[in-house]
Amino acid sequence: MEKHLLLAEDAAERRRGPLRMISGASLEQAWSNVRAADLLLLNLVSDAELAGWSNEVFAMAERHLRPEDSRRVELTKRMGHIKSGRVESYDRALLIWVMDASYDALDAELARVRNLRNVLWIAFLCFLVWDAGIVILGWFWPEVIDLCFRSPSTPDGKICPAGNVGPSSKDIFAVEIAGLIGAALTVIVALRRIQGTRAPFGLPLAAAALKLPTGALTAFLGVVLIHGGFVRELIPIDNRGQLLAWAVIFGAAQHLVTRIVDAHAEEALADIGNLTEAERPGAARREAS
After folding, report:
1. Contact 10, 258 (CB under 8 A)
2. What is the 3-state secondary structure (H, E, C) of 125-146?
């Protein structure tokens, strides 16, 4: 037990640094060692203390093991006997077995959350680089991607996102900023819908952050489609305000894509739910002490 706790402390100390915090490997190693110490502790506690632990172990089994799991079924049959204080050696072994299996299932669920969180942050960085690359392209070569619209309603006959007479280095930047604003509105709504969770890794934050660069990209693509004539007849552009307003709308429309990510994130968090006290690192050990 002491060895496991020292390894957990070492893993917690090594968790410092941006890369280690993002990967989550050190955190999982620390939890794994603390839980291993908890399992060893079950061999040492008295029968009365073990009976007190049975409720937490049973709650973990209900949360993380399938109803037809033979270990969960057997524990259900023995719970009345264990709670009465007549704990046999078989009951102690059964509780350790069920607790170990529940921890393994919990680790798999947490690994799924961590992997999804990592994928979302990688996608966030990729979209951010993509957005920045498009802005740089438009900044130095504005004529390559011309987002100005012909309009007889203006004195100069053109409507450009940045308000200039012709293509400007700030046109794409203006469109992406408008899309970013539209995406930020959906982020606010998404944050209001996020329920508090004690699960680690900040998955809801990663899902919300992904909306911002995605909104900038969808705004740019939407304006390009309008400029290309795909939906020009359905979306007339008569002034710069209308153009930027559509960019905001296209930025908010990224939710049509990212809501799939939101659904996966909510599903992954639902599998874990709010961790019980026994599932928190060292909680069972503190209770027994």
Report:
1. no
2. HHHHHHHHHHHHHHHHCCCCCC
The tokens describing 238, both together, are 């008569």
Sign, CA dihedral 233-234-237-238, equals positive
For residue 158, the cross-strand partners are 150
- Residue with token string 């050990």: 285
181-233, pLDDT tens digit by residue?
A: 999 998 887 776 665 555 567 788 889 999 999 999 999 999 998 888 776 56
Say if residues 54 and 76 touch (Cβ distance below 8 Å).
no
In the numeric block, the tokens 């019980």 are attached to: 276
Residue 265 to residue 86: CA distance in whole angstroms: 43
Q: Are 35 and 103 in contact (CB under 8 A)?
A: yes
The C-alpha atoms of residue 173 and residue 216 are separated, in whole angstroms, by: 9
- Tens digit of each residue's pLDDT (9 = 90 or more) over 12-66: 887 565 555 555 677 778 888 888 998 899 888 888 888 888 888 998 898 888 8
Determine contact, residues 99/57, Cβ cutoff 8 Å: yes
Show the tokens assigned to 217: 């990209």
> Which residue carries 């680690």 as its tokens?
200
Which DSSP string corresponds to the chain? -HHHHHHHHHHHHTT-SHHHHHH-HHHHHHHHHHHHHHHHHTTTS-HHHHHHHHHHHHHHHHHHS-TT-HHHHHHHHHHHHHHTT---HHHHHHHHHHHHHHHHHHHHHHHHHHHHHHHHHHHHHHHHHHHHHHHHHHHH-TTTS---EE-TTSTTSEE-TTS-SS--TTHHHHHHHHHHHHHHHHHHHHHHHPPP---STTHHHHHHHHHHHHHHHHHHHHHHHHHTTSSTTTS---SHHHHHHHHHHHHHTTHHHHHHHHHHHHHHHHHH-SPPGGGSTTHHHHHH-
Q: What is the C-alpha to C-alpha distance for residues 138 and 200, in angstroms, rounded to an integer? A: 40
